[in-house]
């Protein structure tokens, strides 16, 4: 009688162990599952980009600088900011050739801003500058033939620069330019997929007093003179 009771107890123990192992196996089985969809349509970024701080293009232009106004050009590749103008004030005439520095506040910067929001696979852009003709007298239309505007080599920065937005970006190229009737490169990003330079916001800035005007000898006449400067942004790096 005692032996039979022991056998039942032992058998119950086996059942208990077997049931415990069964729970462990069931826990590793696949649970119920379902699926949902994710969907997006990417379209070109055609909105204008506001002026940024030329020394830190990840930050907005603060305070607003009327001497570097927004162009309101649309993207995805856009020229957002150019200098309002280059001013030399009232200056004395010389018969000999003479160089005049631009009038501007000390430490004031002029700058160019380019935004590239094109999709991956599109790299490189080139910004050129030219004049519409020599400085011309507003009344007599007499032209200061040979008078040349000089723009200094600027500092290039990019919002996505891995060294930081305030640091000069070595993958962007700037040039000092003698502005003529021919288009000349002043700012560019290479057509190089490995560098991906010039994407997002890039700036090229210089001190406004670094701009100068050279008037050759023997052409100066009294009067007020002006002309137009044109900036041309094109798709593709400077080698294209």
From TrEMBL:
A Pfam family reported for this protein in Swiss-Prot or TrEMBL: WxL
Name by which UniProt lists this protein: WxL domain-containing protein
Domain of life: Bacteria
Organism the protein comes from: Enterococcus hulanensis
InterPro entries: WxL_dom
Biased composition (Basic and acidic residues): 43-53
Annotated segments matching region Disordered: 43-76
Residue ranges constituting the WxL domain according to the UniProt record: 30-235
């Amino acid at each position: 009688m005692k032996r039979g009771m022991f056998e039942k107890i032992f058998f119950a123990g086996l059942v208990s162990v077997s049931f415990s192992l069964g729970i462990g196996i069931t826990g590793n089985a696949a649970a119920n599952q379902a699926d949902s969809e994710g969907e997006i349509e990417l379209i070109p970024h055609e909105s204008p980009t506001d002026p940024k701080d030329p020394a830190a293009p990840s930050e907005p232009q603060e305070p607003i600088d009327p001497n570097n106004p927004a162009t309101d050009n649309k993207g995805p590749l856009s020229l957002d900011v150019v200098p309002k103008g280059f001013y030399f004030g009232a200056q004395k005439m010389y018969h000999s050739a003479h160089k005049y520095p631009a009038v501007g506040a000390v430490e004031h910067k002029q700058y160019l801003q380019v935004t590239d929001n094109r999709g991956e696979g599109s790299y490189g852009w080139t910004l050129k500058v030219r004049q519409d003709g020599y400085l011309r007298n507003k009344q007599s239309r007499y032209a200061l033939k040979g008078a040349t505007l000089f723009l200094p080599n600027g500092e290039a920065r990019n919002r996505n620069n891995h060294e930081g937005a305030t640091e000069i970006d070595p993958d962007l190229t700037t040039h000092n330019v003698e502005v003529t009737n021919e288009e000349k490169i002043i700012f560019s990003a290479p057509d190089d997929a490995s560098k991906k330079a010039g994407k997002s916001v890039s700036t090229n800035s210089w001190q406004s007093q670094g701009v100068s005007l050279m008037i050759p000898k023997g052409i100066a006449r009294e009067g007020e003179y002006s002309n137009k400067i044109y900036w041309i942004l094109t798709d593709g790096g400077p080698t294209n």
